[in-house]
Design brief:
With 332 residues, this protein is an all-alpha fold. The protein contains twelve helices and no strands. It has helices spanning 2-14, 79-88, 103-120, 124-150, 155-163, 173-186, 193-198, 207-240, 244-247, 252-263, 269-302, 311-327. The two termini are 15 Å apart.
């Protein structure tokens, strides 16, 4: 749910006339910011807070590609990285240096919980109808993004990198750790959600068939999404003149750094940004619905009196409020 809060905040900026993570002329950018992709010049931000041009007159620093060399003790930082770290997350120097609440993220987190509440508060019959849209629309979006990705120059290199196995990686313990983490995360719904939701089925429902289908669709979707992502990463690598592994990110970096960076190099970047982050929102909401339904179902089974009148709606509201307050610890 916190990841969805990040996503909504990104989506808000996607409606800007110029995507803010594509240039260095924002208040949160530092002197180290350098645009290193697309047709834009290699500009160093001269309006960043704390930047004093007179301090750099005798250095090797110049502006907008005249001389993009920084002093030896200063390294370049991509604007999309600074947007992620300094604007979205507002990372402090350490856990001992809290900067207070990131209020925009607290607001988007609240909006996420409001959406979740109104999607399941009437029960599994209502949430099932919502999921008809939230579960199918991302596949439409993935198909559109795949067609767009395959039309980009360099897409074939990205797909080859994704599909061609590198068996030497099997000796790397880190690869096995990442793979195990991903599998456990992907199939976390088997820890109780499937059992809880299965209780709403008819007694003779073929639950094994459903579980096998869910596992197959889950893994198939991962491969499908990989084709979408790596077709665009291949395009990025071709634009920057580097290999695909140099632009590929893992974890949140792929969604919030690598792909947004690629979007800035596409025609109509705002459109693709809005569609991409809307798709991520729907994908995340699907997982959130299932987790909430599992907890609510257990509560209803333990306390049948909650099913009477408006008690269920109050119970779901209380669960959402408590979860929101816990989530605030992740956005300071």
């Amino acid at each position: 749910i916190v990841v969805l809060a990040w996503d909504l905040y990104y989506a808000y900026f996607a409606f800007s006339a110029v995507l803010p993570w594509g240039h260095c002329n924002n208040e949160w950018n530092t002197v180290r910011c350098r645009v290193s992709f697309g047709d834009q010049p290699n500009c160093i931000n001269t309006t960043a807070i704390g930047y004093n041009v007179s301090d750099w007159i005798n250095s090797t620093l110049s502006v907008c590609g005249v001389n993009d060399t920084l002093p030896e003790n200063v390294t370049h930082v991509d604007p999309v990285v600074e947007f992620w770290e300094r604007k979205i997350l507002q990372i402090s120097t350490g856990i001992d240096d809290p900067n207070g609440m990131v209020w925009p993220l607290a607001g988007t987190l609240l909006l996420c919980w409001v959406i979740c509440y109104f999607s399941i508060f009437k029960g599994v019959q209502w949430s099932g109808k919502v999921v008809y849209f939230t579960a199918t629309f991302p596949y439409l979006m993935l198909s559109i993004l795949l067609v767009r990705g395959l039309s980009l120059d360099g897409a074939s290199e990205g797909l080859l990198f994704f599909l061609k196995p590198d068996f030497s990686k099997l000796t790397d313990a880190g690869v096995w750790l990442d793979a195990g983490t991903q599998i456990f995360y992907s199939y976390a719904l088997a820890l109780g959600a499937m059992t809880a939701l299965g209780s709403y089925n008819k007694f003779h429902n073929k639950c094994y068939r459903d579980c096998i289908a869910i596992a197959a669709i889950n893994s198939g979707t991962s491969v499908f999404a990989g084709l979408v992502i790596f077709s665009v990463l291949g395009f990025m690598a071709k634009q920057q003149g580097v290999t695909v592994d140099q632009v590929a990110e893992s974890g949140p970096g792929l969604v919030f750094i690598a792909y947004p960076k690629a979007i800035t190099q596409m025609p109509l970047p705002q459109l693709w940004a809005v569609l991409f982050f809307f798709m991520i929102l729907l994908l995340g909401l699907n997982s959130q619905f299932v987790g909430m339904e599992a907890v609510v179902t257990v509560g209803m089974d333990l306390f049948p009196q909650l099913k009477k009148g408006c008690r269920k709606q109050i119970f779901v509201a209380g669960y959402s409020i408590i979860s929101y307050l816990i989530g605030l610890t992740c956005v300071p």
